[in-house]
Amino acid sequence: MKVGDIVIVADLGEMKIYKAQPRDLEAEAGLKPDNVKLDLIDAKDYVVSHWKVNDIVTDQAGQFKGGSQGRGEFTQGSIGDRHELVKRVENEVIEAIAKDISDAVAANNPPKWYLGLPETIFDRVMEKVEAGVKDSLFMSLKKDLVKENKNKLVELFQKKLS
């Protein structure tokens, strides 16, 4: 990792974007370009992924009986399945993560960029990232690194290189 590279780590709840800056004067002068520290340049929260279905939908399943109750008959109304809603919210967050990754890389135009995403969403996010941005990806880790110390991130990516 060298000065000017960016590191993006994300999960379904948040994203952090770091830029590699010189740690000391030697790194700043270009004598030791690998001696870098990460500075947080942007952070995003995906609040909707933390919501419960009850926060999004106002009625509980079964609260409104529905159906026909005329002429002595009773037919069942809606049973209130909401599993599609959970999937849809997750897909919207994944699309937002992919768009934010594409925008961050385009805005910063780094020499190299690194990515850390949980294995459960990695493939789904990467298929939605713009092709030009995806091609410029230098290294990725299929790990949830959002809560990881930023100094440890440099070590993790450099360890993977060796």
Protein model, in words:
The protein is an alpha/beta fold and 162 residues long. It has a single domain, classed as 2-Layer Sandwich (Nucleotidyltransferase, domain 5), CATH 3.30.420.60. The protein contains six helices and five strands; from the N terminus they run ββαβααβααβα. The chain has helices at 25-29, 53-56, 83-108, 119-126, 131-135, 150-161; strands spanning 6-10, 14-22, 36-45, 113-116, 137-141. A hairpin with a 3-residue loop joins strand 1 (6-10) and strand 2 (14-22). The protein is elongated. The model has no long low-confidence stretch (mean pLDDT 81).
| Radius of gyration over C-alpha positions, nearest whole angstrom | 22 Å
CATH topology name, in short, is: Nucleotidyltransferase, domain 5
Strand content: 15-25%
* Tally of helical runs: 6
Give unreliable regions as ranges.
none
Task: State the total count of DSSP E strands.
Answer: 5
The computed structural class is alpha/beta
CATH architecture label: 2-Layer Sandwich
Q: Roughly how many Å apart are the termini?
A: 12 Å
Mean pLDDT rating: 81
Helix content: 25-40%
